[in-house]
Structures are given as C-alpha cells and as structure tokens.
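WARN no homologs supplied; continuing
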Amino acid sequence: MKGRLAVIGDPIAHSLSPVIQNAMLEELGLAPCYGAVRVEPQRLAEWLEKEARPFYAGFNATMPHKTALLAHMDGLSADAKTLGAINTVVVREGKLHGHNTDGLGFVRALGSRGIPFAGGQAVLLGAGGAARSVALKLAEAGCPVTVCCRQLERAKPLLALSPRIQALPFAEMRGALSACRLLVNCTPLGMEGIAQNFASFDFLDALPASASVCDLIYRPFTTSLLAEAQKRGHVIMNGLGMLIHQGICALELFLDAALDVAKMAEVSEKAIRKLL
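OK structure emitted
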C-alpha cells in the first residue's frame, strides 16, 4: 500500500478511527500511518484534488461529508450507491472509489457476538443514516425489518431499499416488538452529551425473552437502554462492535486483502478500551 490513510470530517478530533486503524496496521507489521484530518465542507473539493488524489491510498469519512462525497467519486460500490452515503474512499491511480461499510460492519459485529438475526424479525428505532445502513444489510440477509420513528415521512427512503422493510410510528411499535428477535436503537437517545433519553423503557417488556437488544451508541459503553434490557435478561451489544468491524472492512478495501477479522477486532477493542 502506497500513500496516506486518514479519516476526514468537521469536527474530527473525537474520532476513534485512528486508534482502530493504527492498532490494526501495527498488528500487520505496517507503519501506523492513519491520521485525522479536519476538512471543512467548503474545502472538500479542493482537499480531494490537491491532497487525496495525489497523496492518499484511502480515507474514511464522517459528518458532514458522507453524502457530499458522492458528487466527487469516479466509482461507487453497490451499497454506497443504494444508500446515497459514503464512509470509505479507496484511491487507486488518482481515482476515487466510494464505499459504505457501516451496514456490513454491523452484521459482522452481530456474528462476532453470536447474535442471531437471519430469518427473524428486527425492529429499528430511528430512521436516520445509521438506520438505513443497518436496515439494508439485515433485509439482504433475509430479515424482515420494522422501522419505528416519530415521523413516518422520514422512513420513506428506507422503505425504498427493500420490500422486507416497513415502518410504524413509535406509538404502534409494541406489536412489532412482540415478534422481534433483534431490537436496534439507531437514534442518539442516551448518547453521552445528549440531554434527551427515552422517556420510559416499558416498551422493552413487550420483547420475547430470547430477543437481543443492540445500541449503535458506544459512549457511554452501556447506555440506559442496554442496562434496562440487561436487567430483563436480554443479550445486549453496544455500538463498539459496529465501529470496529466497519473499520476492518475499510482496511480490507484499502489493502485489497482479506484480514483475520477476529484478530483485528481483538487488537482494535484492546486499543479502544484503554481510552473509554
């Protein structure tokens, strides 16, 4: 691999991607060359032409660039095209190829924890970008998905992804929960630094005992939702696994090579836990 690696965004100092990627690079015997670069929205096009194309092997992208990058790509993966969002860009001979590894990262994280989902029903709380990625990959794996949100208008783009995806308002979600194998919080409710949280966790009582509960949040490590689900005996998973596995997927793209996923996840989690 020739060239730099980085994550771009604005702001970007909070990103854990350099921790994950450099831990994996060192494990592979490669130089830890992954940085964090603040790129303001108005500088994106200039940065791509003057920095990314000539000097980078690839980069990850976070807010506010995930959709803005679409207009600058020379090629798009199927997931990036379907979702209309990019989180990974591979640079080859000055050409920019956009990918989205979020959904695959989530599915891989479930597999690493032995959490079943294929063939079962999934309920997603929220209809934002994270929900789109998760819903697409669950539906592709044969899992019927119900998206619950306050404004059903927001769920329309998700419904277009697959006939296996439907939407309900929060007020009507208890029926869907009763047949649910996997509940995933895709909202920021409960996130560190966010004042709002769920008003009540009574909806968890509608879940079958065998259902697993996931939160895409990893700060705090155990959200209120996960703590309440654990009290009720459910298997839980926070967002750290998705963060790590989407990063592994990205590094595989940068290196154009399959990696020992279990080993990469182990070294990444060890590096992150030193910080959390």
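Residues 104-238 form a domain with the Rossmann fold fold (CATH 3.40.50.720).
OK
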